[in-house]
Design a protein that fits this description.
The complex is a heterodimer. Helix content of chain A is 77%, strand content 1%. Chain A has eleven helices and two strands, in the order ααααααββααααα. In chain A, α1 packs across α7, α7 runs antiparallel to α8 and α9 packs antiparallel against α10. The relative contact order of chain A is 0.13. By secondary structure, chain B is mainly α. In chain B, β2 and β3 form a beta hairpin. The chains are: A mainly alpha, B mainly alpha.
């Protein structure tokens, strides 16, 4: 039994609160992460044939990175709070690939700014796309191995050196790749929704709308095919423990997104774009929640004992106070930003 | 002892932390101090209608935004990555004590990102008053995030009256919290002045505007140095006895103290020159040199903070091999192998068929070294054990291991049992050339 025992410090509040915050954070992260995961390669590929749309995508990337990386902190923070006994051993066994995520994200982020500022967009976008895909696979590997402590002894047997580990292992199996494929499918839907919403923005040139129109259903249908194909294959895997209602809910989103995308291409309008955007957000939300449900079930089953809960509310009160104060400040800034954007055409990040 | 140990040759795994943390701290402190300076300089330039200054400041804000949002944000996450890989026990405890402190910091990060992007992208598209407020919101948010994280890092050095079961604020408001906030605030203003000074040295512009900006930056920097010195005095008073002893005894920490003091003196003099002599001395090589001196000061400060703490990862709670201080006697009674399933399994995985007793003992010693010593000693490289023990005899080895914490205040107590101690002696004796002198 390699799973560490419960520690004497325990959780500050009930696990349900921590799980809810983890899920909310993962949802916010997924909104931005899916945009960069498929948006960056799409922009790099469309750079010559659809330069206006590609430019719009490139210019959105720094914002997606800024908020996506920031939101990604939340689920990892609460995962480490809830299940350190599973997360830390799994990442230590894969220490070097896991650590590699940091320079890869740094390079991708820098490349996103290069492309947004119009410097070697195809090369920068292409490189960032490859690095982001590898980062996504590494995340999938870390989460899969965290939920599979039964496989740790076998991994340790191949990695052990003087009783310790070298950390060169990467848990690449069909489960990992299928999970990544499902996220990539969802991500294509996000790009379709982004293109439709962006094309219907105020003062948008007709040429941008014309370029985006056929791409919206193309991305959504490709996303549905990838998501559906990987999802069907994943359903038979050992870690696919999701209860049936959640399977139905998480699977239902993408076909509706594809239908909305086709409807948008048939008759583009701001209403059709908003409907597509709303459905894509719902699809991401349902998948984010179902992924957290599945991960929670797998990790709870693997954990040897429920952690101690110390019911210490003072730190939660501090967080809520900062959250409320931050929300007030963000609301004021949102009002200022919205007024500025309404008053003038959208600027380029070239300043 | 509850988690696997990650072996990194030459550097040791924990030394990956400063490799990421030091550049991050430099950029993060620049992001805080530079925020105050930019907000102030932009507000003044707008009040006085100096368009040339605003042009220069807009260019600086763009570079500032790229550096803080890209490098600062990702390396900040990188520190968290490395501490989880190299000190999982410590990270688990810190996260479980401070999770909502980190969550609060996350909210502040969002405010930082939005305000900085709005400050840059909406430069000419909001009213001057709104633009000034956006700048000050960024500066305030960046400083609040500094305060929030300092409560956590200072707890590692001075855990104060906290014990398992005590509340969040007992841990957070620990004895070195206020001094460390002052040090970091002051240091941030200094680095802000140096960093923006470097940017200014690279920009062409009207002499009068550059002159005014440099004097103002120097003034901020000197104020920062004053705050830093007040914090350093409080820090010296708040240090626990074992940390003070480490600072006095360890030659590397003596050198770091000298480096921190020396770089502070050089920078203070340079800021005074900037204030009184204006841009006459300002050129890119000189400004870059000052930034590098500032980087030396931050690096020395970080080394002092981390080095003084040894062997504690969290003062009086967690010790360097990754075990709870309260568990030392229990583990010593059971032995490391019995107490750590990962060590036991890893050892079994390396067993060779037909292995004799002597070989098995050396292999056990090597595994014990990995779990008890490798967090601070590489074989050859950082704090290399081979050069350390080379002139020793097995007797000296055995005696030193038995009295580990008496040999140096930076060493943890020996926590293995007798068999494991003999195995470690057998393993290290391979490198002890003093054997010939027996």
């Amino acid at each position: 039994m390699l799973i560490p025992p419960p520690d004497p410090i325990g959780l500050p509040v009930s696990p349900a609160i921590l799980v809810a915050l983890k899920t909310a954070g993962f949802f916010l992260h997924a909104l931005c992460m899916t945009l960069w995961l498929a948006g960056m390669p799409a922009a790099a590929l469309l750079h010559r044939s659809r330069p206006r749309v590609a430019g719009r995508l490139f210019r959105a990337m720094p914002f997606a990175f800024a908020f996506g990386i920031n939101a990604g902190i939340v689920p990892l923070l609460f995962l480490q709070t809830l299940h350190p006994e599973l997360f830390f051993p799994a990442t230590i066994l894969q220490a070097w690939p896991w650590l590699l995520v940091i320079p890869l994200v740094l390079l991708s982020y820098a490349a996103a700014y290069l492309a947004a500022f119009g410097k070697w967009p195809a090369a920068a976008g292409g490189m960032a796309s490859a690095l982001l895909a590898w980062t996504g696979i590494t995340f999938s590997a870390a989460m899969t191995l965290s939920a599979s402590p039964d496989s740790w002894p076998a991994v340790l047997a191949t990695q052990a050196d003087a009783g310790a580990v070298r950390g060169l292992y990467l848990h690449l199996d069909a489960t990992v790749l299928l999970r990544f494929g499902m996220v990539a499918g969802l991500a294509l839907g996000t790009v379709a929704a982004f293109l439709a919403l962006d094309a219907q923005g105020r003062n948008r040139e007709e040429a941008v709308r014309a370029e985006a129109r056929p791409l919206v259903p193309a991305f959504a249908l490709a996303g549905l095919a990838l998501f559906g194909g990987c999802g069907l294959a994943y359903a038979g895997r050992p870690l696919a423990t999701l209860p049936t209602p959640w399977i139905v809910l998480s699977a239902a989103g993408m076909p509706l997104v594809a239908l909305a995308a086709v409807a948008y291409a048939w008759k583009p309008s701001r209403g059709a774009a908003l409907a597509l955007g709303g459905l894509q957000i719902a699809a991401i939300g349902l998948n984010a929640v179902s992924r957290q449900v599945e991960q929670g079930l797998a990790m709870a089953a693997a954990s040897p004992a429920a952690p101690l809960v110390r019911n210490e509310w003072e730190s939660l009160a501090l967080f809520l106070a900062v959250f409320v104060a931050g929300s007030v400040v963000l609301a004021w800034m949102g009002r200022v930003i919205a007024r500025a954007w309404r008053a003038a055409p959208a600027p380029t990040p070239h300043g | 002892m509850d988690f696997p140990v990650w072996l990194v040759e030459i550097l040791t795994a924990p030394m990956l932390i400063p490799a990421i943390a030091v550049p991050h701290v430099i950029v993060a402190m620049f992001a805080v101090g530079g925020g105050f300076l930019l907000a102030d300089l932009v507000a003044r330039a707008r009040r006085e209608g100096r368009e040339e200054s605003l042009r220069l400041l807009r260019g600086q804000t763009r570079a500032f935004m790229l550096l803080s949002l890209v490098f600062g944000a990702v390396t900040g996450v990188g520190i968290w990555w490395t501490i989880g890989l190299t000190s999982p026990e410590t990270t688990r405890d810190l996260i479980r004590i401070f999770v909502f402190g980190w969550a609060a910091e996350w909210v502040v990060f969002v405010v930082e990102i939005v305000s900085l992007m709005a400050f840059y992208y909406l430069w000419d598209r909001v009213t001057p008053r709104e633009h000034a407020i956006l700048g000050w919101i960024y500066a305030a948010a960046a400083w609040v995030s500094l305060v929030l994280i300092t409560g956590i890092t200072s707890f590692m050095l001075t855990s104060g009256s906290w014990r398992p079961g005590a509340g969040f604020f007992t841990a957070y408001l620990n004895p070195s919290f206020v001094p460390q906030v002052l040090i970091r605030t002051g240091g941030s203003l200094v680095l802000g002045a140096l960093g923006l000074g470097l940017m200014l040295s690279l920009q062409a512009g009207a002499a009068g505007d550059r002159e005014r900006m440099l004097r103002r930056m120097s003034l901020w920097g000197m104020a920062g140095m004053g705050i830093l010195l007040a914090g350093a005095a409080g820090y010296a008073l708040a240090l626990p006895d074992h940390a003070r002893l480490n600072l006095v005894r360890a030659p590397i920490l003596n050198a770091m103290t000298a480096a921190a003091a020396g770089s502070g003196a050089v920078i203070l003099a340079a800021l005074a020159v900037g204030f009184f002599a204006g841009t006459r001395w300002l050129n890119p090589p000189y400004a870059l040199l000052l930034v590098l001196v500032g980087a030396v000061g931050v690096t020395a400060g970080e080394f002092l903070r981390e080095g003084a703490r040894k062997p504690h990862r969290i003062e009086r709670q967690v010790l360097a091999p990754g075990l709870r201080a309260a568990d030392v006697e229990t583990i010593r009674a059971r032995g490391l192998v019995a107490a750590s399933p990962w060590l036991r399994e890893g050892l079994a995985a390396g067993a060779a068929p037909g292995e004799d007793g002597a070989r098995r003992r050396v292999r056990l010693g090597e595994a014990v070294f990995s779990y008890h010593c490798a967090a601070c000693h590489a074989h050859v490289g950082y704090n290399g054990i081979v050069p350390i023990v080379q002139p020793w005899t097995p007797e000296l080895l055995a005696d030193t291991i038995r009295n580990l914490h008496r040999v140096s205040p930076a060493m943890p107590p020996w926590v293995g049992n007798e068999t494991e101690r003999e195995a470690l002696v057998a393993y290290l004796s391979q490198y002890a050339k003093g054997r010939a002198a027996d």
